[in-house]
């Protein structure tokens, strides 16, 4: 297939580029390089099946394609909150531009949605049928509501124009190619531990997240995209093993043999207290489940950061 991948130079985008090329597809990678890094795509630079285009998906884009994967948007709270208007525009205008392209070309489209559509959930684990608990005017809403609106548009275009749109709700993911200043918890803790600097725990550290290693996640995205029949509901993907931030810190300190101490800081506004995916649908439909345990994934990611720190 000839596939357009937006956000190709980002953390997930770069891993997806590799997965698509390895499976024999040709890839047009779009990125505005606002948070993406061309270094992540170095491996594909001499591949004749790969083309990179610097483009902001808030503007329309046309090229004949069979498939579209829409992954352009900063996903770290630190980055998406630094220019919230741009974040919601990227989500809202971006998906409209990609849906127009899908309508023009007949391409299948997969939208990268997020566990953030569940907000600060009052149900756990979160099933796809749960409507969520989102503050519509808070500092996270540029991302949460942007992604929710993008889901709405995908399902409206499906119902109204018969497009083949698919939605993955992606839970916390980590691995190589995250940037050192990403600001999310796994990269922060590993970088701090490697530098023997204090590990910054926001709040009491008892809030939970479920961390999926990137290779598992990319497998699930690919299976969703290649699923032979149209899908009329979103699919959660993530690792259902749930950890507190204190447990994560302990694991990271142990693996890197660090002298770091814990430093408690204020909990950011609207920070969800828990997050854990119900992945029954992904298991049943895609025959997928994560394989990489936290320890193994953190070891690989620590190795990556220790090779790349300050480069
Ligand atoms: N967090 C933390 N220390 C950090 C960065 C994040 O304790 O240096 C916490 C954050 O408050 C949240 C959790 O870790 O409760 C996950 O945050 P992250 O930004 O990785 O992603 P989120 O799941 O909130 O989108």
Quickly list its features:
two-stranded parallel ribbon, globular, alpha/beta, 311 residues, binds uridine-5'-diphosphate, Rossmann fold, UDP-galactose 4-epimerase, domain 1
SSE blueprint:
Blueprint: E1 2-6, H1 11-22, E2 26-31, E3 50-54, E4 67-70, H2 77-80, H3 84-105, E5 108-114, H4 141-161, E6 165-170, E7 173-174, H5 185-194, E8 199-202, E9 208-210, E10 212-213, H6 214-226, E11 235-237, E12 242-244, H7 245-256, E13 262-265, H8 280-286, H9 294-308
Parallel strand pairs: 1-2, 1-4, 2-3, 4-5, 5-6, 6-11, 7-10, 8-13
Antiparallel strand pairs: 9-12
Helix pairs in contact: 1-6, 3-4, 5-7, 5-9, 7-9
Bound molecules: uridine-5'-diphosphate (UDP).
Structural summary, described in words:
- This protein is an alpha/beta fold and 311 residues long.
- The protein has two domains: 198 residues, Rossmann fold (3-Layer(aba) Sandwich); 88 residues, UDP-galactose 4-epimerase, domain 1 (Alpha-Beta Complex).
- Helices cover 37% and strands 17% of the residues.
- The protein has nine helices and 13 strands.
- Strands 3-2-1-4-5-6-11 form a seven-stranded parallel sheet, sandwiched between helices. It has a two-stranded parallel sheet with strand order 7-10. Strands 8-13 form a two-stranded parallel ribbon.
- Strand 5, helix 4 and strand 6 form a beta-alpha-beta unit.
- Helix 3 packs parallel to helix 4.
- The longest helix is centred in the N-terminal third of the chain and has 22 residues.
- The protein binds uridine-5'-diphosphate.
- Uridine-5'-diphosphate binds next to helix 5 and strand 8.
